[in-house]
Amino acid sequence: GMLIIQAQPYAELWINGELKEEYAGMKPDLLLAIDNGTQSLKALVFDTAGIMRARRQVVFEPYRSDHPGWAEQDPEDWYRAACGAIGLCLETVQPGQIAALSIFATDGARW
Predict the structure, then answer these.
(1) Per-residue confidence in pLDDT tens, the chain, 111 aa
(2) What secondary structure does DSSP assign to 8-30, as a single string?
(3) SS3 sequence of 45-107
(4) Which pTM value belongs to this model?
(5) Burial of 23 (C-beta count, 10 Å sphere; 0-12/13-18/19+)
(6) Which residues, in sequence order, are CB contacts of 89 under 8 Å at separation 6+?
(7) How many CB atoms lie within 10 A of CB 109?
């Protein structure tokens, strides 16, 4: 089935619909790009000039199956890898700086 990720991991940045004071002065001008491949997930952060500000990669088991000849992946592996890679990127940039998100996944993958 499809893995649904709720967009609430940074809810603690907000109070009553307003950005917390420590993030209020930040200009959200960075792009967070997610590249979900067959063996790893990469999170990359770029500024408006196209300069990479952060890059993290989390490796996961490429394929497994209880059925001979099948190639399967567990969406939970993708989720854990995304959380890990994004979290590592956020050690370099602040969440309030992220203005947009782009996700690329292998053929047939659904987010």
Answers:
(1) 333 334 444 555 666 766 666 666 667 889 999 999 888 999 999 998 999 999 999 998 877 788 888 878 888 888 999 999 999 999 999 888 898 999 988 765 555
(2) -TTGGGEETTEE-HHHHT----E
(3) EECCCCCEEEEEEEECCCCECCCCCCCECCHHHHHHHHHHHHHHHCCCCCHHHEEEEEEEECC
(4) 0.70
(5) middle
(6) 32, 43, 44, 45, 54, 55, 56
(7) 16
